Amino acid sequence: MDRNTIIGLFLISLVLIGYSIWMQPSEEELAKIRQKNDSIARVEKQKQITEKEQKTPSEAIQNTPAETVENLNDSLATTDNDSLQKIKLKETYGAFASSAQGEEKEYIIENNLVKLTLSSKGGKPLYAELKNYRTYDSLPLLLFDETSNFLINFYYQNRYISSDKLYFQASSEHVTVNDSASLILTLPTDIPGKNIEFIYTLKHDSYLIDFDVRFNNFDDLITQNRSEFQLEWNINALHKEKSIEMERQKTTVFYKYLDDDVDYISERKSETENLVATPQWISFKQHFFSTVLINRKGFSKEDAFVETQDLEEDPEKSQKYTKYLAAGVTVPIDGNTAQMEFYFGPNHYQTLKKIGMDLEDQIDLGWGIFGWVNKYLVIPIFNFLDNYIANYGIIILLLTIIIKLLLFPITYKNYISSAKMKALKPEIDELKAKYGDDPMKMQQATMQLYRQAGVNPLSGCVPMLLQLPILYAMFRFFPASIELRQKKFLWADDLSSYDSILDLPFNIPFYGDHVSLFTLLMAISAFLYTKTSSQGSMSGPQAQQMKIMMYFMPVMFLGIFNNYSAALSYYYFLANVISLLQQWIIKKFFINEEEIHRRIQEAKKRGGKVKKSKFQKRLEEMAKQRGYQPPKR
C-alpha cells in the first residue's frame, strides 16, 4: 500500500468520524426522542392491556347476549380513546393537562361605569361594555367582542404553554363593585397549590381595572432565567359611530415609551411596527374610546410590537368592524407577580389626564402651538361653560363669542389697516397707470406712497397670522370632543358627526351622499365675509385673484366639511356671522373712511413716516444685503 493510499484512507476516516459527530443529536434533541419513544411505549402498553381485556373466553362470549357484547366493545373503545386523549394532553401540556379540558363559561365583574365579561377559556376579557354610552344605533356599547384574543405564553417543563388553550376556575360568577372588589381566575395544575392566577380588581366609579398575573409555587419557572412571559392581545374594533369612514380614520394603535413621548402607527394603512424601547402602555384607540394595557414600571423592550390591519376589503367584517388591532409585549415578573392595568373607557381629556402617563395625548388636539391653544384656552373655557349650561349648541355659541372678543383687538387692527389700504386705492391706481409696464418701479413707487401716508402694508397680515392658531385649533377640537357625541342641536342629531337634511341615493365624488345644512350655511357666510372684506381694497390682477378665491373657497369648504363634525361647521358659521357683525360695527362706529383719507393726505404733505416693525426692519436689512436699495423719499 503506497503512501497516497494511506493518506486517502486516513482522510476518509476523518471525514466519516467528523460527519457522525456533527450529525449526532444534541442533548435537547435526545431528550425529545426519548420522550417520544416513552410516549409510544406507553401507548403500545395501553393497547396491549386493552387487547388482553378484550380476549375473554369464547364460552363467556357465546353465553353473552349480542347487545351486551356491543356495549362492552363501545365501553372498551371509549376507555381506550379517553386513555389516549389523557396521554396526549399530558404530552402537550405537562402539569397543566388537567386544565386542557373544560367547558367555556362567562364571569362578570362590574361597577357603575364598566361591565367586564371574562371567559373561563384563557381567562381573557371577552367583552367590555361602557354603561353610560350607547352606539349610534342605541345598542349597548362594547369596545370589543368574542372575536378578540388575549393570552400569555411561557416555557415550562420543555413545553410552550399558551393560556388561551386552557380553562380557568373562577372565585365567583358575578362580582358587583360598590367600593373595591376582585374576581380571581385560577389555572390549576396537577400539583396541589401550584397554579396561575389572573386577578381582576375594579374600584367604584373607575374605568381602570388592575390586572395581576400571579405564579403560585412556580419557583422552578421563575428561577431558571425566565422571570418574564409574553402577552399577546388582538381585537376587531367594533363600529359604533354614525360615520364608519370617519371612525376608521381615527382608529389605530398608540403607545408610549417609558420616559418618552406618545407615538402611534399610521391611521391610513395597515402597518406592523416593532417597538425599540421600553413601552409603558399600548392603546387600541378608536374615535371616542380606548382599550389600554398599562405597566407603570414599563414592559420589557424585547419582542414588543404593534399592528393594524384595514378590514375594508373583507365584506364580512367591514360593516361591523373598523380595523384589526394587535399588540405583543414581554412582561417582567416581580417576585411571583406581574402587575398591570387595563383602561376601558372614553377618550375624555380630563379623565385621561387624571390617570397620568400622558394618556390624554392620544386625543388629537393638534400639534405644537395648536395643541397648546386647545389645552390651555379652549378646553378650560368649554369645561367652564359645560358646568352651567346643558345645551351644547348654546355652549358653542358662547365659546365663539368669547374667542371673537379675545381676538377683537387684533380684528380691529386688521380692519384699520384694510381701511387705510382702501383709502389709498385711488393713488395706487394712478401709479399703476403710470408704471404699469415696469413692475420694479411700480413696487418702489407703491412703497414710497405707503411711507408718505404712514401706512404699514404688513399690519394687516400680522393679525391674520395671529388668528390662524385658533382657527386650526378649533378644527381639531370639535371632532375630537366626546362631550359632543350624540348631543342634539336644532336639526343635527349628533354634533360630533355630520348633520344631514337630505340623504342622496348616490355618492358625489369629493362631497358625499348627503347634504349638511351647517356646512352650507358656513360656505355662504364665508362667501359673504370674503366679498365684503375685499370690496374696494384691491384692483387689477389682485382683485381678479381675490374674486376667484371668493367663489372657489366656499365650494372647497363644501367638499371638505360636508362629512366633518356638525359642531365644527356650526362654529365656523357663527365665527363668520360674528365677523360680519364686527365688520359692520367697526365701519359704522369706529372708522370714518373720509377722516382716514384726510389724515393720510396730511401725512403725505408732512412726509409722514410709519414706525417700522422689527420684522419689517429685518426684511429691509436682508434686502440691502442682497443689493436692493429702497427708494428715497
How would you sum up this structure, described in words?
- This protein has helices spanning 3-23, 27-54, 58-63, 66-93, 219-222, 244-249, 349-355, 368-386, 392-406, 408-423, 425-435, 439-453, 461-480, 517-534, 540-561, 566-590, 593-606, 614-625; strands at residues 106-110, 114-119, 125-134, 140-142, 149-156, 159-162, 169-170, 174-176, 180-188, 195-203, 208-216, 228-238, 252-257, 262-264, 271-274, 279-285, 289-294, 300-310, 321-332, 337-346, 502-508, 512-515.
- It is α+β, with helices and mostly antiparallel strands.
- The protein has three domains: 29-96; 102-363, Beta-galactosidase, Chain A, domain 5 (Distorted Sandwich); 371-498 and 565-618, no CATH class.
- A nine-stranded antiparallel sheet has the order 7-9-10-11-20-17-16-13-14, with no helix packed on it.
- Helix 8 packs across helix 9, helix 10 packs across helix 16 (566-590) and helix 14 packs antiparallel against helix 15.
- The protein is elongated and about 110 Å long.
- The protein starts with a helix and ends in an 8-residue tail after the last helix.
- The model is unreliable at 49-64 (pLDDT under 50).
